[in-house]
Automatic annotation (TrEMBL):
Pfam families: Pyr_redox_2
Boundaries of every FAD/NAD(P)-binding domain copy: 3-119
Protein name: FAD-dependent pyridine nucleotide-disulfide oxidoreductase
Organism of provenance: Haladaptatus paucihalophilus DX253
Signal peptide residue numbers: none
Length: 389
């Protein structure tokens, strides 16, 4: 029997495992390995601070997410030997015939000097990519009565690049509805020329931000946070004072993959699994596939991207097992619902070649993101069913 091992029980790993179970049935032994038994709906983290989603509904036991016949192993992956086809774990090593790497990003708050101290020792720093910080931020917003609200981004790639923009816009809207907008300044930084990389959504966002007096600091490379002085310092000497800070945590590949395997060799900074951007097959090891935040394909790192990649990985892995040439191609599709204010959102959809959706704010986009997608995510997407385009 063919042995398939999936590393990671996050979005990409869960979707792919369930798809493979239905495609291959009892002809394959499928094992998912993850050190955590908790699966979080991460798109909720920028909604929780404003009370737009129920925080208690955003987590599931991963063992409830897998179809019958999939084995879940709770263990910490420490390395991968693709020549011997072995996943090295803290408890017991696991052999495989085919490997799917979906290990996601590693959040590293310690990589920004002062970030951890500000988070743990003050009431003004909330790195909202962490669930605990997103939860605590809700009370911080309720107590906030004006000042400078700052969202910063690290010098690393990040999951959901639209989340910092959404946090900024929702916070500005929250201040308006609370009646403290005139007493509050809103600033977002990014170490790039623009706050959003894809047109025509970028220009529409610039228009919205100009109309709402939200400031964007371009090419701002965060060097350190001084929680005592309440200042963010950039590498070029610029400083931004804050009263409330929402820094995006630096993000990297998992050390078990970047340091414990050769799978990232050839990628930029050695942080990402090197794959063909269309077939999602490893460039050196034909029996290895990767998807989601852990690989180096030039797509936006979102759940919507992983959702499309999972089908490509499952199709191509099935073909490989059956002796056929993998033919499925990933288009680079990604989607980002850009929530601009309570009740309004713009859907940014694009692939490797072009933008897909129009840059239009609508209530329907808000309803889709806040009221529809969480249920679709838990009940359909994670199980490999994909009713939406």
């Amino acid at each position: 029997m063919v042995k398939i091992v999936v590393l990671g029980a996050g979005t990409g790993g869960a979707m792919t495992a369930n798809l493979l179970r239905r495609k291959l049935g009892t002809d394959a032994d499928i094992t998912v390995v993850d050190k955590s038994t908790k699966h979080m709906y991460q798109p909720s983290f920028y909604l929780i601070p404003f009370g737009y989603l129920d925080a208690e509904e955003q987590a599931r036991d991963v063992r409830e997410l897998f179809d019958n016949g999939i084995e879940f192993v709770q263990d910490e992956v420490t390395g991968v030997d693709p020549d011997e086809k072995v996943v090295e774990c803290a408890e017991d090593d696991i052999e495989y015939d085919y490997l799917v790497v979906a290990t996601g990003h590693r959040l590293a708050p310690e990589a920004t000097p002062g970030l951890l101290e500000g988070w743990e020792e003050t009431d003004s720093v909330y790195p909202f990519y962490h669930y605990e910080a997103a939860m605590a931020m809700r009370e911080a917003f309720e107590d906030f009565d004006g000042g400078t609200f700052v969202v910063t981004q690290p010098n690393t790639p990040i999951k959901c690049p639209g989340a910092p923009l959404k946090m900024t816009m929702l916070a500005e809207d929250f201040a308006r509805r609370k009646g403290i907008r005139d007493e509050t300044e809103f600033i977002m930084t990014r170490n790039a020329d623009h706050h959003f990389g894809v047109q025509p959504y970028r220009d529409k966002l610039y228009q919205l931000w100009d109309d709402r007096d939200i400031q964007f600091e371009a090419n701002f490379s965060v060097e350190a946070i001084d929680p005592d002085e309440q200042v963010v310092r950039a590498a070029d000497g610029r400083e931004i004072e804050y009263d409330l800070l929402a820094p995006v945590t630096p993000q990297y590949g998992q050390t078990a993959i970047t340091e414990g395997s050769p799978l990232t060799e050839g990628s930029e900074n050695g942080e990402y699994v090197t794959i063909d951007e269309r077939t999602l097959q490893h460039t050196e090891y034909d029996d290895v596939f990767a998807l989601g935040d852990c690989e180096n394909a030039p797509h936006s790192k979102t759940a919507a991207a992983a959702r499309k990649e999972a089908h490509v990985v499952a199709d191509n892995l099935e073909a490989l097992i059956e002796g056929r040439t993998p033919h499925a191609k990933y288009s680079g599709y990604a989607a980002c619902p850009l929530l601009t204010k309570k009740g309004k959102a713009m859907m940014a959809e694009f692939d490797y070649e072009e933008s897909i959706s129009a840059p239009v704010e609508s209530k329907m986009n808000w309803i889709l993101d806040v009221n529809v997608l969480p249920s679709v995510y838990w009940n359909l997407w994670l199980h490999g069913y994909d009713p939406l385009p």
